[in-house]
Amino acid sequence: MKWLFLLLAKLIVMGFWLGSVYFTFIHPLEGKIHTLIPVFAVLVLMVHAIQAAIMTLVAKDMIKLTARDYIELLLFGFFRMIELRGAIYEAAQKKKAEIEAKRKEA
Questions:
Q1: Deepest of 4, 27, 56, 98, by most Cβ within 10 A of its Cβ?
Q2: Cα angle vertex 42, ends 36, 46, to 5°?
Q3: What is the spatial distance between Cα 23 and Cα 33, in angstroms, rounded to a whole number?
Q4: Count of domains observed in the chain
Q5: Which pLDDT tens digit goes with each residue over 19-60?
Q6: Which sign does the torsion angle of CA 82, 86, 91, 92 carry?
Q7: Which residue in 30, 74, 27, 69 sits closest to 50, CA to CA?
């Protein structure tokens, strides 16, 4: 069920990106909305870039993020972060077990 929610959410976000490109470059709308669409797109991209930076800081010692992960973080933001959360949790548990094993050896 979770994967269906994430898929639907990603489709909605992808619709936003495709719509913003379409209504900005291919078929511009008349009036003030024409200037607001690119502004909203840049704001969303900035928020997603901040989320990608946060994910880089959180995951740097646990998992290696690929170029695909960064692209998906820029496109989908929080919804990609939800998917990466499980991998980070598992890596953190593994690291914690390794640290505890080293303590018992010492």
A1: 56
A2: 145
A3: 10
A4: 1
A5: 999 999 999 999 888 899 999 999 999 999 999 999 999 998
A6: positive
A7: 74
